[in-house]
Amino acid sequence: MAGGVAAVDGVRPAAGDPEPTGTDLRTVGIEEEFLLTDPHTGVAVPAVHQVMEQVPAELRGQVQHEFQTSQIEIGSPPGLELSALRHSLGLLRTGLADAAEAAGVRLVAVGTGPVDGPVPPVVDKPRFHEMIDRYGLLVPGPGNNGMHVHVGIPDPETGVQVLNHLRPWLPVLHAATTNSPFFAGADTGYASWRSVEWERWPSVAPTPVLDSYAHYERLIDQLIDTGMMLDEGMLYWYARLSANYPTVEIRIGDVCPSLDDTLLVAALLRALVATLIADVEAGRPPVRVDHHLLVAAHWQAAHEGLEGNGFDLLDGGVRPAWHLLDRLVGRVSPELDRHGDLAEVTALLDRLRRRGSGAARQRATFARTGRLIDVLTDLADQTRGADQPRGADRAPGATGSGADRGMED
């Protein structure tokens, strides 16, 4: 999320740092990671340095390297208005797509590369090399590309309690963001193969139940002491406190193919966090969720996606994933309305229902043409966005600096 300089080791938020909005509405910011591919073969290309050289100066503060040289990342400024978020992310996606094209490659919003090819090297940073030396090649493909959503919180103690309350709600949003069914030239049978690959890192897991912010800090220190993490930046829980800002950071999803998909998930997560903050302040306890059932619900989300079934962690049993998503929308509708997002979310949900998840769209394209390069072409078009034509003028104001980035933090 833009607004500061990316921290390698991270600085934990001070207990007294409030969300600096001057309102009880919640800010939201988004990070998106993309794959760089050969436009003719679809193979992931280690071209991040060439693409970075082509990024316009006014956008560079919100663009940076990711873990592998076939990946690149953007971060939006935090804000209150979805329209402003759409504007800034649209400029960034279009500007980055143009930069990639100028460098002879293509920008694709996909969870992991669908076409088989050589594994691109990691970016030449000491920390990344240390991670490979310590943990081995845990990412054997062209890169894991996710979306991270930051939502403002009043203080870390409240944030920790929000993390507890979030646990049963995240699997269905995991399902809604599935966008990586293909890997190494084949359909994996999963809607999100990125999730399967991502689980290889030792610190990737659902967020545990936390007693307090002190407990959160103590766990981080102990996990570093064990050697399971090099530093706080490797805390890859599905939701965590930002190391740099007064936000909770939700990091379960594949990068979404289109900006509409991204904004829908961001709006739902903002409304969900706002709803849960009210629960925390009212003294309502979180729903008790068995850890193994939570793991199972996330596995099912990655496997089935939005078009299949999900496990209902609130009352048990298997339900259609859309049923669970509709229930979440009903739960957070008052906060969607209070933040001015209800009408747009209603329209975006209707569009998602008609078009299907990213995984479903990829499979539909492949079923129609039988060619993965056509899947990537369609994804590249969605990444750029129909409302952002090639060479579109860039409005001023999309400046800032990167932070809380992917594998780096």
TrEMBL record:
<dbReference type="Pfam" id="PF04107">
    <property type="entry name" value="GCS2"/>
</dbReference>
<comment type="function">
    <text>ATP-dependent carboxylate-amine ligase which exhibits weak glutamate--cysteine ligase activity.</text>
</comment>
<comment type="similarity">
    <text>Belongs to the glutamate--cysteine ligase type 2 family. YbdK subfamily.</text>
</comment>
<feature type="region of interest" description="Disordered">
    <location>
        <begin position="1"/>
        <end position="24"/>
    </location>
</feature>
<protein>
    <recommendedName>
        <fullName>Putative glutamate--cysteine ligase 2</fullName>
        <ecNumber>6.3.2.2</ecNumber>
    </recommendedName>
</protein>
<dbReference type="InterPro" id="IPR006336">
    <property type="entry name" value="GCS2"/>
</dbReference>
<keyword id="KW-0067">ATP-binding</keyword>
<keyword id="KW-0547">Nucleotide-binding</keyword>
<dbReference type="GO" id="GO:0016874">
    <property type="term" value="F:ligase activity"/>
</dbReference>
<dbReference type="InterPro" id="IPR050141">
    <property type="entry name" value="GCL_type2/YbdK_subfam"/>
</dbReference>
<feature type="region of interest" description="Disordered">
    <location>
        <begin position="380"/>
        <end position="409"/>
    </location>
</feature>
<dbReference type="InterPro" id="IPR014746">
    <property type="entry name" value="Gln_synth/guanido_kin_cat_dom"/>
</dbReference>
<dbReference type="InterPro" id="IPR011793">
    <property type="entry name" value="YbdK"/>
</dbReference>
<keyword id="KW-0436">Ligase</keyword>
